[in-house]
Amino acid sequence: MGRIDQRLKELGLTLPPPWTPRGAFLPFRREGQVIFLSGQICEWDGQVTCEGPVGPGGVDIATAQAAARVCALNLLYTLRLACDGDLDRVRAVLRLGGFVNCRPGFGESPAVINDATQVFVDVFGEAGQHARTAVGVAGLPGNASVEVDAVVALAS
Asked: At residue 18, does pLDDT exceed 90?
């Protein structure tokens, strides 16, 4: 068992079962030592775990933060595929992009995406620290509340 797999176990994190993309896209694209991970919604075993807009009258922030963690676990699953099963190859998480389905005026998107950030920092330590965007949007695939994408560098 690799160092990162051991870390996942220590944290009590389980990666999702295999899934099928909802659209005509690649789950990841590799260019040299950089992996571009397609956006992952808060879907687990074929079911969206958190639907609808976040904020007053909708999904509460704590529930949306849990959804962001699911997105991060989906990204780790895809990253493992991109690394031929060896997450120890990750040198650095370069960037996360977070999208929060919300109503106009919702200003807490960064607080929601913080939980996806925390998964990467918990799993990879300093190598998990990254640049980030967290924006509110009018809708996401499957009416998901959260979607996250990432760019990751591998060791040579």
From this structure: no
125: amino acid identity, one letter: G
Residue 20 is inside which H or E element, if any? Answer: none
- Residue 145: per-residue pLDDT: 98
Pairing of strands 28-31, 34-41: antiparallel
Q: Which residues pair with 41 in a beta bridge?
A: 147
The pTM for the full model equals 0.97
Phi, psi of 118 (to 5 degrees): -60, -35
Percentage of the chain modeled with pLDDT above 70: 100
If one counts every other C-beta atom within 10 angstroms of the C-beta of residue 103, the result is 14
72 contacts: CB under 8 Å, gap ≥ 6: 115, 116, 119, 120, 148
Instruction: Delineate the domains of the chain, giving CATH numbers in brackets.
Output: 3-15+30-154 (3.30.1330.40)
The SS3 call for residue 110 is: helix
Closest CA to 32 of 128, 129, 156, 124: 156
Determine the Cα–Cα distance for residues 73 and 113; give it in Å rounded to an integer: 13
Find out whether 65 and 114 touch, Cβ atoms under 8 Å: yes
- Compute the mean pLDDT over every residue in the chain, rounded to the nearest whole number: 96
